[in-house]
Design brief:
The structure is a single chain. A hairpin with a 6-residue loop joins strand 1 and strand 2. The chain has 5 helices and 5 strands. It has 194 residues and is mainly α.
Length: 194
């Protein structure tokens, strides 16, 4: 009989505990959590499932605590419908923080289940990206600034905000996103290095 939480991966001979994460916790966790049971034996894997289930529940508990420690409105869209909300200096930090949180959640999801070699490769790529980002900032690289401005416009649209792209507020948003972009890369690198 098939166990609902027992799974395999093409990239591994071992069995895994696999379970979906509740929607309410996906701001800080990926859609699914995979925990290696460190064995290719189905019998041993089944014996390991209770420990993996406890580890899964601990991850959910930690995620709930993280969400409780953050401002509750951080994960809520700024405007659902109706006319766009005008971007203000007070909203800029909130928008940038939401970008940071979602970027790291996406990074955590991509990191799940990768091999040691893939982890090393990812660490090299992130370290290179961080250095290139810092250099682009120091040079005020036009291409990088244009990419940030495009990101800012995407976020403004997604958050249903209004700001003129030629305004000082928009420049402040781009600068805030740039700081968070570097912070995301710093945090990714720290996570990859354990």
């Amino acid at each position: 009989m098939k166990h609902p939480y027992l799974a395999t991966r093409k990239s591994s001979r071992n069995f895994y505990f696999r379970r979906a994460v509740p929607e309410s916790l996906r701001a800080v966790l990926p859609r699914e959590i995979w925990i290696s049971l460190q064995t290719p034996s189905r019998e041993l894997a089944l014996a390991c499932l209770p420990d993996a289930a406890r580890a899964f529940e601990q991850k959910l508990t930690t995620a709930r605590q993280q969400l409780d420690d953050r401002p509750p409105d951080l994960y809520q869209p700024l405007a659902h419908c109706g006319p766009p909300v005008k971007l203000t200096p007070e909203l800029i930090e909130r928008v940038a923080e939401r970008y940071f949180v979602h970027a790291l959640a996406s990074e955590a999801e991509q990191r799940l289940g990768i091999t040691d070699d893939e982890l090393t490769e990812r660490e090299t790529l992130v370290a290179t990206a961080r250095e290139q980002t810092r250099r682009a900032r120091a040079r005020a690289d036009a291409t990088y600034l244009a990419e940030l401005a495009e990101l800012a416009l995407d976020i403004v649209t997604a958050e249903h905000l209004y700001v003129r792209p030629d305004s000082e507020l928009f420049e402040q948003l781009v600068a805030a996103l740039h700081k968070k972009d570097i912070a995301v890369l710093d945090e990714e690198l720290a996570r990859l290095r354990g």
